[in-house]
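S1.2 Input.
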Amino acid sequence: MSSNRVIFLADLDTFFVEVERLANPDLIGKPVVVGGRPGGRGVILAASYEARVFGIKSGISGYEAEKLAKGHPEIIFLHDAAVGGYNEYSKMVRQVLEEGSPDFHARSIDEFEMNFTGCDRWVDQLHGGYIAYAHELRRRVREKTKLPLSIGIGPNRMIAKMASRHAKPDGVFRVLPDQARTFASIHKVRDVPGIGPSTEKRLNKAGIETVGQLFEWNETLLSRTHGLWLYKTTRALKCQDVEKAEKRVVFGEYLRRPKSIGHQSTLWADVDDPKELSGVLWKLTERSCKRLRKKNLTTRHVTVMLRWPGFKTVTHGGRLGTESRIESEIFPKALEYFHQAWDGRPLRLVGIRLEDLESAEERPFLIRHETQEKGERLFGAVDRIRERFGDKSLAVGPGTRRLKKQHVKPELHPNSHGFGLLIQQGEETREEESTPV
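S1.3 Output.
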């Protein structure tokens, strides 16, 4: 049995466009763009290959797409999904691929990973090899959904992801383990999944434009100057063991611990409603605190970021009274700094960043107040419920709406005593108080 890993990365080509074309065949062969209302802030979900000729691609804003489409009336924008039902088509594809894979993971609505490590004999005898089997899976998907599917095959997910781009449109591309380093070397660093414009600019400034040049850097120096993620990514592109190497890095825990954790949200429209902005800030705090707990970290410093329509950006923050990783302690300070920085004018973006991070394992002697312990238990339970039933299964904090009669999911919201649970019983909705946090 071969010890080489074999990863399939399946990607539905221009998924949202193809679903719309199934409902409206008149769109076939025409430049079609789904999402991102021109002039708005929403992003483009998908652009057909005909539309990409004009420079329009997924991920750009509606404003950018509008500028690129100027003078080209033949480009068709579907701002509001004409069909919807994307989840249903994605589920059908998942069913086909999961049935044909020993280890399956859905990475997104249109991207799927399959691990065939150790299946060489089975695939060879029954399907004639991995490439032939990849084509067989594509055929099954096409028969059930009529959607095109591209599959990249590689010795790890990073290489398979890059291979899937070469497989498009509607094909298969395999990179063998002994070909991976050469294959990756010829690519620009921007072609590596996860490397965005800012990282590309920073690498280019250091004289690194291709992955091959990235390989020439000393790993320890790379990890110290550009961070652990890029270090691990580089080893993955070389098909080297990431986990064992990470343990040998001389900077140890310093590298494994992020310098900060945060999130930001570009609002769909300029907002000046304090309650709505408070709700956005709470959601960002929730997401950041969840990541702190997952990494077993605490924070001592919180910073909020505000951006106005003219792109003027202000950051304002300060230290917390104590180490924390629970929303009920961090959010009040974040909200305080928010109001200190906000002048009342409409905002286009709100963000939060948690800094001065410490490992909770390194502070076992830390004396915690009773309310902190209860907060840890409460929000830890919220995390577990959401992981099992989805992020929308439980709502906590500012902006939480009371349940309507047809709803059956519980909701938590702050009250004068702490956090309350809204539940539905019979014909009435009542409120139960929980232990203060």
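S1.4 Remarks. The two ends are 55 Å apart (CA to CA).
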